[in-house]
Hints:
Cofactor: [4Fe-4S] cluster; pyridoxal 5'-phosphate
Shape: globular
Largest sheet: 11 strands, mixed
Bound molecules: pyridoxal-5'-phosphate, iron/sulfur cluster
Keywords: 4Fe-4S, Iron, Iron-sulfur, Metal-binding, Pyridoxal phosphate, S-adenosyl-L-methionine
Helix content: 25-40%
GO molecular function: 4 iron, 4 sulfur cluster binding; catalytic activity; metal ion binding
InterPro entries: Aldolase_TIM, Lys_aminomutase/Glu_NH3_mut, rSAM, rSAM_sf
Family: Belongs to the radical SAM superfamily. KamA family.
Order of helices and strands: EHEHHHHEEEEHHEHEHHEHEHEHHEEEEH
Strand order of the largest sheet: 5-6-7-8-9-10-11-12-13-14-15
Number of helices: 15
Amino acid sequence: MQQVVNIQPPQFLPRKFKVYQHRQLDKIEALQHIPKDMLFEMKVVANVLPFRVNEYVFNELIDWDKVPNDPVFQLVFPQREMIDPSAYDRMADLMKQGGSTQEIFELAEQLRAEMNPHPAGQVEMNVPTIDGEPLRGMQHKYRETVLFFPSQGQYCHSYCTFCFRWAQFVGKSMRMNSNDAESLHNYLAAHGEVTDLLMTGGDPMVMRTKKLREYLEPLTESRFDHVQTVRIGSKSLTFWPYRFVTDPDAEELLALLEKLVKAGKHVSFMAHFNHPQEMGTEICHEAIRRLRATGVQIRCQAPLLNNLNNDPDAWAQMWQEQVRLGMVPYYMFIERDTGAKRYFEVPLYRTWEIFRDAYKQVSGLARTVRGPSMSAGPGKVEIQGVSEIHGEKVFVLRFIQARNPDWVQRPFFAKFDETATWLNDLKPAFGEEKFFWQDEYNSMQG
Ligand SMILES: *Cc1c(COP(=O)(O)O)cnc(C)c1O
Ligand code: SF4
């Protein structure tokens, strides 16, 4: 008989990691070795787009031999092409002339406003109300799912812009958020059609457990029986897995999640992984193990980003690794038309090629992933493929999610366009004037 070896689990000690923000780029040891003009470029961009990184990320996730092409470096460090050349020049000139902090701040606000901080009509169209009063910090776009942006959780340190987060992060003026747990609860109690609450941001996991509990614990009351699922969107497994292992309130956090599960909720932790390189550390594996031990299901989603993960093998490897670690691949997104899109965007037909080349490499268990998908004004539109019908080359599309649930799952067609990167670049195929949902969508916009 084989001897059973008793492997001791690795011991994880609480660690303090320094956090660096945009004025501290000079202080980062590892950056001392990169060319001076590149460092200046990074400072220019960091004045416009938020920057924040901790030592765990740059010591343990970035392979400095691969910089600047390292994917995690691309994710968290600013790159010149993330802002457009004229914006870049204006900021660079101001800095060279020794502009004051105030002048830099004002120019930055102006440049950000030009970067479409709130795409897809999210400020005008999705804001729920109670007694006619708009509830800031909430979005209710699809019947069954309410999004909540807790104001204590509006930080994320990466530049990918498929979510709402960069606009949340940069300043109060663009933010939508709420610290009003009572409004959230009143709204949910009054809306029996809502089955899913999605806590998002930023990253709700930067909140202390005590605060998180105020939002989540009441959901175990019977007036919230219809809210079956609590989703929490988070990058913390990448940036701060210690959150679930050694942070002072880690145990309390896990207990809170377990309590929700025991009360009959499905808790889905929506992990944002852009590249397999983010999931390789022991501490990350331990965090995943602990989260799963509470009964939480981890699902994974990420945008496809040029310069970072525009590589089918990286996706295939990532999905396989997710399955191996007990997580479920869920979405591949297409970069939204906001923030640093110009740097990360990939033509739609390429997103489909990459998705397909990755998808065909993995077993069925990893094919739970959907995409590539655009979170556009009318809904989540998936590129199902490129095809030729009666001699016309077309995109085959479908709604995964839509403002009108009846639009979902009906194939529709757009003219093939090699340069298109977003839904509004597309024209209906077969000489049609508009897409089947277009009139109705226009009338919803008022
Ligand atoms: C993606 C998304 C959801 C969730 O959609 P599912 O198909 O249920 O994953 C909800 N609200 C908004 C605004 C979204 O973008
Ligand atoms: S999508 Fe996720 S990882 Fe990217 S900026 Fe938003 S929260 Fe961060």
